[in-house]
Inverse folding.
């Protein structure tokens, strides 16, 4: 038996930290199925809790690698430091983006440089004939059943690969240069989604590509030309095969594509709004609004391209959907520590974001991160010099954005009183339970009250944190705790105590007699009350 240890990945275009599951463990399970080898899957968090979970495995394939560092609520990714302690001592195969940051071999491991699929299959005893990304198609279907072994199943979201690589490949820090552009056959992608759906998955993100809008685009031009007709039929095919999908989202979109091909992009935006589910985000890799940084690092999009793309997505996507979130909004990624960065860069980025607010546009998420330098990228010339030098500026900038931008944006996107549906509770701290929707870049919701992990609640927004919201759960008035009643806006301690003392209520008239008409109106909004 071979163990598959999922140490989680987070590349610029692939996420595998729970509740996400990346395609890699699924592909590996498929390879083993194809070769008739028994396998056992475990996440690294399961392994940490119980290292015996893979005890019967003679060999272990370890998947790991975080190219986009961050804090994760759903799990703790496997680190380089932890690798030597993984059982067994010998016979381990290491795959994933982690191999890009290794300086030498680690004892007990055979590491396969990323991307690994062809080489791994060969090592496992298979024969490799197809060197494109279509190589994974059969394995993606055969390995789909691995999802049932995931500790969060069925509350997982499957990251789906459509293609690898970027035609531009020139941005100084980007690791996508290791991939050549290679598309997966759309019919195979639909077959994979169907296989996962058949095994019970209902949440998907078409997230494993550098620019979703250029999937199956015409790459013979200077800038790939998107194909809106293809996009429509691709989405229709997904829904035809899987009519009860609950989440269908995407990840990266290059704003340059929208700026270069506005007509085609407009049609694709409409398709996304129609055929994907609300709460969707197109993450734009803007990286910097400073022209000097853009030039020195060969970045693709300029601030005017990004602003144009933000406006266009807002035009069709800003309206609220059934789950309480706007259908489709842009997100922006900034990277700091790049070549040519000065104090002025921070000001330019700040001005760009303030301009968005002034124009009344919506942006669902601003990601600020410091560059992670890989040896094989042009950024290696200066390494982390700028990161170290500008550490203080970065900290201050982050503070300013959280204070002056994020909070204001949250208030616009999710105004007080908005009902958000299907928040999945993940952890509990005292009398607040924290959860998120199963979605792309979900908002952290602090739900008032104690709920078990994996409970799904609908809740109304009552307050804001810096990048999170507090929401009040839609629960029955006769079962709400005193603490919960006290946290309904407009209901003070005294009224809450009165309600608690007079329960159970059998009709809304009884409630009105207890608290008065105005307060009864508030209670009707936040709680489930008898007719
Ligand atoms: S546009 Fe630049 S940052 Fe984006 S994927 Fe291509 S090379 Fe990487």
């Amino acid at each position: 038996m071979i163990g598959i240890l999922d140490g989680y990945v987070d590349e610029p275009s692939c996420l595998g930290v729970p509740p996400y599951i990346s395609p890699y463990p699924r592909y590996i399970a498929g390879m083993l199925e194809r070769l008739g080898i028994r396998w056992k899957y475990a996440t690294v968090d399961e392994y940490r809790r119980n290292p015996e979970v893979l005890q019967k495995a003679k060999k272990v394939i370890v998947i790991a690698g975080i190219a986009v560092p961050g804090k994760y609520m759903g799990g703790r990714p496997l680190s380089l430091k932890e690798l030597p302690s993984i059982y067994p001592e010998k016979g381990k195969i290491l795959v994933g983006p982690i191999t890009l940051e290794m300086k030498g071999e680690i004892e007990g491991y055979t590491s396969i440089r990323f991307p690994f699929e062809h080489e791994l299959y060969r090592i496992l005893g298979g024969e490799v004939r197809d060197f494109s990304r279509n190589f994974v198609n059969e394995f993606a279907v055969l390995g789909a059943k691995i999802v049932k072994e995931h500790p969060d199943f069925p509350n997982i979201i499957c990251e789906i690969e459509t293609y690898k690589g970027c035609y531009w490949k020139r941005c100084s820090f980007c690791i996508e240069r290791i991939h050549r552009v290679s598309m997966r056959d759309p019919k195979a992608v639909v077959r994979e989604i169907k296989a996962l759906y058949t095994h019970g998955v209902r949440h998907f993100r078409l997230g494993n590509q550098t620019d979703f809008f250029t999937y199956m685009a015409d790459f013979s031009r200077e800038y790939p030309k998107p194909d809106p007709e293809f996009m429509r039929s691709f989405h229709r095919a997904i829904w035809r095969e899987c009519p009860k999908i609950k989440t269908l989202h995407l990840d990266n979109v290059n704003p340059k594509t929208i700026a270069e091909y506005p007509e085609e992009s407009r049609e694709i935006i409409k398709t996304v709004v129609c055929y994907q589910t609300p709460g969707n985000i197109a993450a734009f890799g803007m990286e910097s609004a400073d022209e000097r940084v853009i030039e020195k690092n060969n970045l693709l999009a300029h601030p005017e391209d990004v602003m144009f793309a933000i406006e266009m997505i807002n035009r069709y996507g800003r309206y609220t959907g059934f789950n309480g979130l706007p259908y489709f909004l842009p997100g922006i990624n900034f990277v700091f520590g790049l070549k040519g960065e000065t104090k002025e860069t921070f000001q330019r980025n700040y001005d760009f974001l303030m301009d968005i607010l002034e124009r009344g546009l919506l942006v669902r998420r601003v990601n600020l991160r410091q560059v992670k330098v890989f040896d094989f990228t042009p950024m290696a010339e200066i390494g982390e010099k700028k990161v170290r030098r500008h550490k203080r500026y970065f900290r201050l900038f982050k503070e300013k954005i959280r204070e002056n931008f994020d909070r204001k944006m949250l208030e616009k996107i999710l105004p007080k009183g908005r009902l958000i549906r299907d928040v999945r509770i993940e952890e509990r701290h005292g009398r607040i339970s924290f959860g998120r929707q199963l979605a792309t870049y979900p908002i952290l919701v602090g739900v008032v009250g104690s709920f078990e992990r994996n409970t799904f609640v609908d809740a109304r927004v009552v307050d804001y944190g810096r990048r999170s919201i507090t929401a009040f759960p839609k629960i029955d008035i006769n079962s709400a705790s005193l603490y919960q009643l006290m946290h309904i806006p407009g209901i003070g301690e005294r009224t809450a105590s009165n309600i608690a003392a007079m329960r159970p209520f059998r009709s809304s008239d009884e409630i009105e007699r207890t608290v008065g008409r105005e307060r009864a109106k508030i209670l009707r909004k936040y709680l489930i009350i008898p007719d």
In short: Residues 419-526 form one domain. The first strand starts at residue 2 and ends at 11. The chain has 17 helices and 21 strands.
